[in-house]
Amino acid sequence: MRSKVLGTLVAAALAAVSTLSAEAADRIKIGFISTLSGPSAALGVDIRDGFQLAVKMAGGKVGGLPAEVLVGDDQFKPEVGRQLAEKNVRLDKVNFLTGMVFSNIMLASVPVAFESKVIYVSPNAAPSPFAGKQCNPYLFVASWPNDAYHEAAGQHATNRGYKNAYLIAPNYQAGKDSLTGFKRFYKGNVAAEVYTQLGQLDYSAELAQVRAAKPDALYIFLPGGMGINFIKQFVAAGLSKDVPLIVPGFGSDQDIIRPVGDAMLGLFDTAHWAPDFDNAANRKFVAAFEKEYKRIPSVFAAQGYDAALLIDAAVRDVKGKVEDVEAVRKAMKAARFESVRGAFKFNRNQMPIQNYYLRVVARDNQGRLVNKTIGTIFKDHGDAYVQECEMK
Amino acid sequence: MRKALFTTLLLIAFPLAMQWLGYLFYVSFASRVMIYAIAATSLNLVLGYGGMLSFGHAAFVGAGAYVASILVAEGVASAWIGWPAAVAASAALAWIIGAISLRTRGVYFIMITLAFAQMMFYLVNSMKAYGGDEGLTLPRRAELGLGLDLGNEVVFYYVVLLVLLAALYALHRVVHSRFGRVLIAIRENEARVEALGVPVYRYQLLCFVIAGAAGGLAGALLASHGKYVNPNVLHWLQSGTLMIMVILGGVGHLWGGVIGAAVLLGLEHVIADYPLPWLAQVAPNYQQHASLGVGIVLLVIVLFAPQGIAGLISRKRHA
Amino acid sequence: MSWILILEQSLNGLQFGLMLFLLAAGLTLVFGIMDMINLAHGSLYMLGAFLASTFVQLTGSFLAGVLLAIPATAVLGMLLEVSILRTLYTRDHLSQVLATFALILIINELVRLVWGSDAALPMPAALSGPVELLPGLRYPAYRLVIIGVGLAVALVLYLLVAKTRVGMLVRAGASNREMALAMGVDIKLLFTLVFGAGAALCAVAGSMLAPLLAVQVGMGENILILAFVVIVIGGIGSIRGALVGAVLVGVVDTIGRAFLPILLGAFFQPRVASAAGPALASVMIYLIMAVVLYFRPQGLFPARG
To answer: What is the pTM assigned to this prediction?
Structure first.
């Protein structure tokens, strides 16, 4: 009786295992984990749409091999992101992992990939520990180092002659990086440095403090739903007339422009890319994105697209032999692809060295609100942490 | 008893089979299920046998997880220090929370245990030094020495299995001891027991502390297993999940926690990771709505089968 | 520390407290009269916000959308009461907790199926600007409206409960249910109406707060705990207690969040001060509840005679 039950169980187990797909070396599996729900979902959706557009435009292939992109929603929760990463890496046995929007989710999840020597290509977050002491050979950043936009904004504030800036960011690694980066290039006085709760939606208390402090500029790093709410409440409190607002590029892109609307006109921001870049790769990307998704791409979409191109180039250069992870790494480091931002090259810590520009929110010739490039702030700018990285 | 022996043999054979088949992922998954089973069993003691509706049990699991993690993060890798420290910390926390909460009754007790758990959640969330909201990633699992490498999934599984069996055995002994009988009597009719001159408060507090300590051990194992801990472990929704496991499995039954954890986590995994094409035709995206099924099952159980799965099984046996 | 800052933060606290009151009022009545712990109360708040979002889109008017959402949510609430919750009145607290927890999961997923995980409810343009209350204090018009609505609802509730026959029945039920039953009150109908009223109040709070915060699945769980804390402090079954408790909690929370980080900033790094401040504010609220429970377990304004 017992052996019969045991036998059935073993048979059932074998049957279950056989329904799992066998490992195919003739396919590229990519795990895509991003924030696809909640107030900040627009960011993850943009990255995903940009990424999938690139794959689609290559005929559903990455590097010449058919690609399977497994999309998962981290719901803005680090432990969910981590569980998805574990599943992608250990059960689905993906060749690459990518997609995450937020630094806290990334910090919780990517160690899982690194442990199993799976490459993580970041289409967004790149927290400063990974640029310096904890730089990792399996991390490639297709976007920017976390501090970059903020450093450019700090430089812009200095160029503008602001003397008394009020700073606000959420209390997590990227928030800390943002204000550290801003202060690195901003030479005036800091009226206050306030950290809000990640995911906070009601800023009435903080806005009252800003009003009382009477700064000559307000710098905020509040991505996604946080930024939408803050700017709306900022305008509602009548502060937009009194205090000039500066934001990094992700604080004023399409995901915030759409819900906030005309109140965004004239807002200055800094970024590594804008839809009006005049190079062949970008013109192709923007046209295809608008046709496919009927909306203007944001920096997030551009980053997702570039991440896909980066993976595609690496797989192509190793001729599909992705089992040799070291060869893939070498190929990826060479970054032989046409990025929508123009020239692309990696620093020693596998984060990009690139230009950063000043943008302003204005109307395009169709009357839509969009970010326009008006100047260059930094050329060939790396990051401040690369000396602490021991990779060569 | 024969059933228990058989199940134990199955549990012992399982990881070896999985290793042979090449799917260590399932050994890791099974370890996780067993750790939750330990946590649910500890809640079962205070909820099922003690009759105390503690809605803050996640605080003890979380306290154990954090104490164990902080020690590893600070370089104290030995599990012989880390795990007992976790147990001691949770026991102390349970003593403090229990001492105050048990002076209240009914809904106030529920509210105050919930409130204490939330307080712990906020405190832990504000500890930026240990990750705060991002959580704390550990470089390695705790070390047991004795030539056992806890980094090996199969070895870790057996260690967890040992702890689970020990916990179940301990629960069995407690329930059948004089202490356990008094507890059950208090659950049935507190006034009568009080009238007999029994110090009800002290019995309940001791039960609460034991359950908290066991929860802390589960927490330490959980932190070691995932090499990651995050404040959400302490959130009241986690307490709710543990309660679901206990109710599903059978509140007040010895194996209630184990059955509940296995069924709940197993179902979630199967629904999320094994798409059924025919079901997807009828209800696209059904995999993202697994909680709906869990909610319905829970509601049905509460309304119609309050003794849970274990209750249904024993009813069948006696029918 | 300017007076304007203190005044502005106090207004913020009042606004938050009044919205909490709307939730707490319904919760305390259900608890006081039906002796039922309803964890799904937060889900009604969420439903109110989602329904308002749909009605606003359908009618193009914020006012119409909110006014339609209130009875819609009340009806849904009453349906829920008649079908499932009624069977829980006679059950023990554990079953109530678990069943309503299950309802949270079910309602969350159903909302996700119908609407997706979030919805948009923009602030009406006419109210998106500031109002000059004092020279130097331009306070958001919309928040003033919320304060106004909150106070108006509190007044209406007071009049209803203190001056009408229905209100008298409600008070009788809250004070001593068995006696009310013995006196021939149609308890089933009363319960359903009370539940519906609670749902309506939730809808007001949900739809009014939506333009400020966000309409998303799970929004009820965050505010539910605070609502329970409020009714424990205020006294179960007492609307007056709910008002006092809610305003107390709202003000303590807001003032704490606003000023504690500044206070702590004198001793700690900005990141630490910014994290510890809100944590301490939350802890303070729970401490207040613990203290009330210890010294006056029936709450500040107990309804039970």
So the answer is: 0.86
